[in-house]
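CORE FACILITY INTAKE
Project code: CF-77B
Contact: R.S. (postdoc)
Sample description: multi-component assembly, three entities in total
Requested service: structural model of the whole complex
Turnaround: standard
Below are the sequence entries exactly as provided by the requester. Do not edit them.
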Amino acid sequence: MPELPEVETVRDGLDRLVVGAVVRDVEVFREYSVRRHDGGPGSFRDQLAGRRLSAAVRRGKFLWLPLEEAATVQPVQPVQPEPVEAYPAAALLAHLGMSGQLLVRGAVLSGEQTPTAVLGDEPGRATAADDWRHPHLRVRLHLTGAPSGARYLDFVDQRTFGHLSVQDLVHDHVPTRGSATPPSAVPAGHGSDLPLLPEPVAHIARDLLDPNLDLDDLVRRVRRRRTQVKRALLDQTVLSGVGNIYADEALWRARVHWARQTDKLRVADVRRVLDSAAEVMREALAQGGTSFDELYVNVNGQSGYFDRSLAVYGRENEECRRCGALVRRDAFMNRSSFSCPVCQPAPRTRTP
DNA sequence: CATGTTTCCTGTCTGC
DNA sequence: TGCAGACAGGAAACAT
């Protein structure tokens, strides 16, 4: 799945290849993929055409490109009063769901940039400025004026849990510790202290790679909850960016069972779980830049390039890399939890 | 209000 | 060989 490290890799690629480009046209092949856009495909197209993609920003697994009016390519529409804010008032918001990809086509890559390592394009088709349409192509943005020469930004999504929309930028609904603070990847030169987020992201908590995350506060908020620790890890309003895979990996590293109650965990345990989650995601991100090119596109149910490094996820009845016990799998929230029965002893009262 | 459960979707895999 | 059912999962929507 594209989790935080994968989304960050994509964000970085968009930053280098499509930021600065102007959207010339939009094709929506699957209406469902823009279901969260208010107004439908026609409105989606209208709100993008003629706008410049001015930055690439991420929080958790949400990714967005703030929009600016393009001075050169003005769409034919009535003149509207300019917003006073210097920061863009709207953004193209993307969530990759579990199988979404953003593929840049036609970019001329320079130097060290490996074509296929940038945005998960397919080997052999990576550099060509072709019009080839992926079987799961849902939305295509036609670009012009990209410094990289990128012609298309393709949204490809097999299982269609991902989505695109144009959203107003609003102030953070859940500022950490009282004061409004900026999102994690605020573009340079855009007033980095302006805490503007797409509306659907405004209630999403900061992620573990956010330099402005208050870790002590997060520990307190986790322990204040009365639920299983893994539920807390997956809760958007507590912490963003952690999915089922990295939750299991973090808990294994921290030697904490997924069903432990948050309000009974010690501060040191919670801190260790969070540190482990940050660590495993940083490692995945580090690998994401290099070795995933031939595998990253294969997000059809497998975790892809990071597979080899996984300690427990998807390894039912295989040996724990630490103690050799057989990894167990439990049903959890209509999915699975993987854990080591020895390293991560289950709490007494709750026995699934 | 806080927490738990269901639902959306498509392609692959398993078992009968 | 076919085909129903299980499975994968983020997060909104709904339920308790």
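Facility notes:
- Residues 111-128, 175-194, 289-304 of chain A have pLDDT under 50 and may be disordered.
- Residues 1, 36, 61, 95-99, 159, 161-162, 200, 234, 236, 243-244, 300-302, 333-336 of chain A lie near DNA strand C (CB under 10 Å from a C1').
Invoice: internal transfer
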